[in-house]
Design a protein that fits this description.
The protein is α+β, with helices and mostly antiparallel strands. The chain is built from 17 helices and 29 strands. The strands form 8 sheets. It has a 6-stranded antiparallel sheet with strand order 1-2-3-4-6-5, with helices on one face.
Length: 699
């Protein structure tokens, strides 16, 4: 397929780059010079994908423009123009700076439930607007739902849409169904007359996939898929994701009903069904927040954390009379008094509290609370018993570590230059800590070597500036032998800025090092970059993550431009054995002059060193990869870590990879030679799925 070069024109529009391609044509990013705004140009050329004449293509594009032209809604992509330039037929439409929903389905668990519901809600509102104006979309799927950077949803591609008053069939002249089979409604599969409920069924399929990460009808062949849509019911979503709201089961059963009359009658009714999941989710969140403190108290009582001081036991039991300012529940009241008490010696970590199972209200709650109180009392008695056994001075040598832990603030760590502490120091330090519990000393970490002249680096300092060493000296106890010559050294080195000569000198591999603060060049772009640098084998590390080589992201051949997923500064490192590493800073901002820039840098060669030359990418995708490998027992691995059997990654359940990144995969099987495969994953890959077909050779 021939692409239009950047800078060329299509009608009045100036082509900037390729956004994607499909069976019917190419989508470009272009600029409208008359208005000065970016636009997306969808092109179709005769002979591509369908046996259509030029007149049929032109009529179809004009029909799409007429359909979308009826619609003016913030969640629908706006059509600007339709035309022809030579053999190219095109539609100019609103450019959405974002990604399709397909990209987010690569890792749907990264999206919170509220975000998933918001995406489907905005899509339903767009369909409501279209249906009210007599327009059916007929191809609702993740690829046609765009998510802008600001979170707004945009429905696009009314190419196979139609007016509700039309009488044409859903079949082409060759008898092929129009649409995406995995998201079709039963009536669309049968070629029957459609209404808005067909679009809403497709949106229900999208919702199911968002919530469970699995399609409700996962047939691998078109025959199996059609049978499933017409005759089988999807799996219970709660079996796939047990943490979903309980209402999800009933809502999905109604949204994916086989008979249209059993589904929501319109988009407004669809939104009401969606609200049932939202309401249940909000109630669950409120309940979780209400019982979290009680759950934390329960975990402490069961011994997950050190026992609380005796003052906690003075909290009244649920049966005791209370006169609170506001009448809270018994569980929340008890939790409030617990956390209002003085904290235990080692506070419970947030992660421990959050992992505790939420308590349930049962008829035996008073009995449960009584049992908890008994456990707390037993734990406190055990704790006090241990403390009493630790108070007497031991005849043998004692380890100084407990004394440091008993007096140091959280996070304080003694350096390796700490002198050995005498046994008496350890015992007395613990004793002093115990006897002064009624008047705790707020301790702060030592500010630095000058202030800690007589102390070990890391020893805590009291709020009045007194160090532990000073307290030992004042008590007449032997003072530990210090080695002040070694104390300042690690602190000064850690805090000092690297000398210019050291910062510029390359390490053994000729690079600046991962931790270098040097920046060789600064760039600015609105969205993406193209690495046309030399050597093209230069490894790219962006924001600390290896994403491939320069040749992968040059927007040439099988490569693509590297698109950043967020605004702000990004650190880029280009390195290769034998070459001086180059550090770049790329600022992604909507105020940048260009939407996409080219980085044409040449690494400085400092010595001749051999390195592994990586081949071009085998395929590209927005995230999904299907494998058809001989032999069937082949395994897919990445970085030495097995990902699974190649036969398990089918069209129905493909391997999902994250991007933007080039993944270096390895296919292996017993008695066969391993086969490396490089897959480029990016939102602008132009393909929703990569299919890897390989036959491994015998060793």
């Amino acid at each position: 397929m021939n692409f239009l070069a950047p800078g060329s024109r299509l009608g009045r529009f100036e082509i900037s780059s390729v956004l994607g391609q499909g069976a019917m044509g190419v989508v470009y990013l272009a600029n409208d010079p008359q208005i000065g705004r970016p636009v997306a140009i969808k092109t179709v050329r005769p002979g591509m994908g369908r046996d259509e004449s030029a007149l049929e293509i032109e009529e179809r594009l004009r029909k799409e423009a007429r359909l979308a032209g009826r619609l003016q809604h913030p969640n629908i992509v706006t059509i600007y123009d339709v035309g022809r330039d030579g053999d190219e037929y095109f539609i100019a439409m609103e450019y959405v700076d974002g990604k399709s929903l397909t990209r987010y389905l690569v890792a749907p668990d990264d999206l919170p439930l509220a975000a998933k519901i918001a995406i489907v809600r905005q899509t339903a509102e767009a369909l409501s607007h279209a249906h009210e104006r007599g327009v059916l979309h007929r191809d609702i799927k993740p690829g046609n739902i765009l998510i802008a950077r600001d979170g707004r949803v945009k429905v696009t591609d009314f190419g196979i849409g139609r007016f509700t008053t039309a009488t044409t069939s859903d079949l082409t002249r060759t008898g092929q169904m129009i649409g995406s089979p995995a998201y079709m409604s039963p009536e669309q599969v049968r070629g029957e007359k459609l209404d808005g409920r067909s679009d809403l069924f497709s949106l229900g399929v999208v919702l199911y996939e968002l919530l469970t990460a699995v399609r409700p009808f996962p047939g691998e062949s078109i025959t199996t898929l059609v049978y499933q849509i017409l005759h089988t019911e999807p799996r219970d979503p709660l079996e796939l994701k047990a943490d979903l709201p309980a209402a999800t089961r009933q809502v999905m059963a109604r949204l994916l009903a086989k008979q249209p009359e059993k589904r929501p009658e319109d988009a407004r009714a669809f939104l009401q069904e969606l609200s049932r999941i939202e309401s249940f989710q909000r109630e669950s969140e409120m309940t979780r927040r209400a019982v979290a403190p009680a759950a934390a108290a329960n975990r402490v009582a069961q011994g997950a954390n050190p026992p609380a001081p005796p003052t906690v036991l003075s909290a009244p039991s649920p049966a005791a009379p209370r006169t609170p300012a506001a009448p809270p529940s018994a569980a929340s009241e008890g939790a409030t008094e617990f956390w209002a008490a003085p904290p235990p010696p080692t506070p419970p970590s947030p992660s421990t509290v959050l992992q505790g199972p939420p308590p349930r209200r049962t008829p035996g709650l008073p009995i449960l609370l009584l049992a908890v109180a008994v456990l707390i009392l037993a734990g406190v008695l055990l704790f006090l018993g241990r403390g009493e056994r630790a108070l007497p001075a031991s005849a043998g040598p004692a380890t100084p570590a407990p004394a440091i832990r008993a007096t140091s603030a959280p996070g304080a760590v003694a350096s390796d230059s700490a002198p050995a502490t005498e046994p008496e120091s350890s015992t007395t330090s613990m004793s002093s800590t115990t006897t002064t519990a009624a008047e705790p000393i707020t301790e702060l970490p030592t500010p630095g070597p000058r202030e800690a002249a007589g102390a070990t680096v890391g020893v805590p300092r009291a709020a009045d500036g007194t160090t532990e060493a000073a307290r030992i000296a004042g008590s007449g106890r032997p003072r530990p032998t210090a080695r002040p010559a070694r104390v300042p050294t690690p602190v000064e080195v850690a805090r000092a800025e690297p000398a210019p000569a050291l910062r510029e000198a390359p390490p053994a591999d000729g690079g600046a090092g991962a931790g270098s603060s040097r920046v060789d060049h600064n760039y600015a772009t609105r969205r993406s970059v193209r690495f046309t640098s030399s050597p093209d084998q230069a490894r790219l590390i962006i924001d600390g993550r290896a994403v491939g080589i320069a040749d992968d992201w040059d927007n040439r051949g099988g490569g693509r431009a590297f698109e950043f997923d967020r605004s702000g500064p990004h650190d880029v490192r280009m390195e290769l054995p034998g070459y001086r590493t180059m550090q770049l800073r790329i600022d992604v901002s909507p105020d940048a002059e260009k939407d996409s820039i080219s980085i044409d840098e040449e690494l400085e060669r400092i010595q001749r060193v051999s390195y592994e030359k990586l081949p071009a990418v085998s395929d590209r995708t927005t995230g999904a990869v299907e494998f058809v490998i001989d032999p069937p027992d082949a395994v897919v691995s990445e970085g030495g870590k097995p990902l699974g059997a190649a036969a398990s990654f089918t069209a129905a359940s493909p391997l999902q990879l994250r991007g933007p990144q080039v993944h270096d995969l390895l296919l292996s099987a017993p008695g066969r030679k391993p086969r490396p495969v490089r897959i480029l994953v990016s939102s602008n890959a132009g393909r929703d799925r990569a299919v890897v077909k390989e036959k491994l050779k015998a060793e």
